[in-house]
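From the pipeline queue, job 12 of 40. The input is one protein chain; the requested action is below.

Action: predict structure.
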Amino acid sequence: MRFVFLKHKPIFPAITAIAGLLSVFVGGCSMPADRYAPQIITPPAVSVRQIGSSVQGRSIDCIQFGYAGPRILILAAIHGNEPASYVLAEALRQYLSSHRTLYSNRVILLIPIANPDGLSAGTRDNVNRVDLNRNFPADNRQDTSRFGLMALSEPESMALYDLIENENPERILSIHQPYGCIDYDGPARILASRMALWCDLPVRKVGALPGSLGSWAGETRKIPIITLEMTAEDTALTQEQIWDRYGRAVLDFISAP
């Protein structure tokens, strides 16, 4: 018997060539993307939205820092003749823009100007001569021309009311002038005591005023709310000086458990 040995060429080049042809075929005939497949969308870390308009049509804006976790609401200049409150809110906005760890596990809602018409005119009330901080549907509400003939008669207070109802913040900080104290309503005594450790203002329980945001949110809705009353002299300070005086107290309000 005679054996004949055939000489075979290496098969690896052939396999490589076939693989190349398959890749061309598959690439040219790829399946279309599934339009029903879930899309992963990461919300922006900082966003701005208009929550309402003033009587004169000025925008009331809410700056949102973060997108997941419990909500914290901070607002300023609900009285237009308290300009230092807006300056502190603006300093906070700048600080938060460069310190994102503060809202990695929470959402901070900041309203720098709650009464834009009043701030523009330098008046406590809005242009209808209504004190917006007495226009809420608290249990102790009084219907008057100064406080509004009915609760939420003003578009500015309605915008704040709708935001609180929709976002359901776990705590609220309202920045004011000029009484120089840390007031609180609802279950917020510990928060007030903590903040007092970081600034020179004493804790002083003023009491739930008729139809105020503190009365409605703190006493009626049981949301811890702090009224940070800056001093009258703070109006003459620079933004840096105001932040140096109150910034650490505000940051403690945000980060407190």
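Job complete. The CA atoms of residues 18 and 24 lie 10 Å apart.
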